[in-house]
Amino acid sequence: MEIEISSCEHLMYVSEIQQEMYDSAQRRGTGIAKRSIEYLTKKISDGNAVVATENGEWVGFCYIETWSHGQFVANSGLIVSPNYRNRGVATLIKNRVFQLSREKYPNAKVFGLTTGLAVMKINSDLGYKPVIYSELTQDEEFWSGCKNCVNYEILMKKERKNCLCTAMLFVPENNNKVNGTVIQQSEIDEYNGEKESRLSV
């Protein structure tokens, strides 16, 4: 399995990625479902995403977005193909997109909103801490993105102070040494070797 910073070579997967994002949100009954082909195409073309593939097949995806003039970065749209779930792929992708965020925006705070316990665990291992919503970007464009979520009315009724999502934040100056261990390429290779061993048994 290859986990790479996105490029135009990965545009062939954009329709599959968009459809799986939508389908996954529908199954969960929560989360932000809609991301246009144009939006995802730009993320991939600009190298602001991470794409996982195996033997030419799309495996997983996640992208980065900046807010408040680069003061905040979000790792969004984490999705894994149904054929590759429950194999630790999400952790590998999240680690790589977190590295990309830190490389591109070393002084930015990295944040996320999620209802998923697995994502919360991954974020916690990377050094994120749960925070109240006021600690996140107050950029209106970010919050307008929540309009596609089924829980948007709850968010607005609570005056954007909280919702069903848990807010998590990584602050660079508080994390000279990240609590979690960022996964390196050698560990990806080790994962692949273990998977092949299981398949051959």
Automatic annotation (TrEMBL):
<dbReference type="Pfam" id="PF00583">
    <property type="entry name" value="Acetyltransf_1"/>
</dbReference>
<feature type="domain" description="N-acetyltransferase">
    <location>
        <begin position="1"/>
        <end position="161"/>
    </location>
</feature>
<dbReference type="InterPro" id="IPR016181">
    <property type="entry name" value="Acyl_CoA_acyltransferase"/>
</dbReference>
<protein>
    <submittedName>
        <fullName>GNAT family N-acetyltransferase</fullName>
    </submittedName>
</protein>
<dbReference type="InterPro" id="IPR000182">
    <property type="entry name" value="GNAT_dom"/>
</dbReference>
